[in-house]
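This section describes the prediction task in plain terms. A model, or a person checking by hand, is given the sequence of a single protein chain and must write out its three-dimensional structure as a string of tokens. No templates, partner chains or ligands are provided. The sample shown here is typical of the held-out split.
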Amino acid sequence: MNSYRRHSGSGRKVRAATALVVVLVLLDIVTGGGVRTAAREGAAALSRAFGGTFSALASSGIFSSRAALQIQNQELAAELQQYQLRAAFASVLQAENDQLSSLARLAKASPGITAPVVSSVISSPYGTFLIGAGSADGVALGSLVLASAAGGDASSAANAFIIGRVASVQPRVSAVAEVFAPGSSINAIIHGASVVLTGSGGGNAYASLPRDAMVIGGDAVLSPDLGGYAVGTVGHVASSSAQALQDVYVSVPVNLGSLQYVYVVTR
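The expected answer:
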């Protein structure tokens, strides 16, 4: 039933459209082409109206202004990118200059040389890195390798930190073993208390002290095995009244990942 109604409705629409076309054709014949003339004139009027509108928009400069704005935005974006690149380059140069200035002050206290870091970490052995100086430059096996804390005076023991010792030497390149390499151990003194630091990598180490030992964050950690230089500072102390020992976590206040230069004590 519904299908019959749909087909019946469609048939009526087709017959009505056909009748309208027949009427228009008859009117056009009777009027001698008047219907076609009126249709052409209407189409021409619409074309002139739209053409005038587009001409008005074009003459108003809307499209040209938008294109100019897009070009200006592109130029500003390129200029901003250039400024960002220059700022990043200036930041790198400033960091490099700070490191070199600190190491230059350190040279007044200990004889040695400034060496570039060639490789921050090499695959074997783990916890080592390469420097661009060797036996031809006075570097020897066991030479101490120092870095300066950011903003500190490297000529004082409180701001110059031992980060490693030379483990192997070639004429122009040396491998340095990090003091806090994973699993390493080193004797140290924290606030007058002797401890053994165990390295955990990344410039970090930990130790256990009696709970009554007066240790707080920021205390310097010195190593008698390394000429009395500082090897780090206390970063965190974890203690509990139920335990006789407290855990002390030590770190080197130097960003080893961005280190570009180190100071090698050659004497």
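For orientation: Residues 151-158 have pLDDT under 50 and may be disordered.
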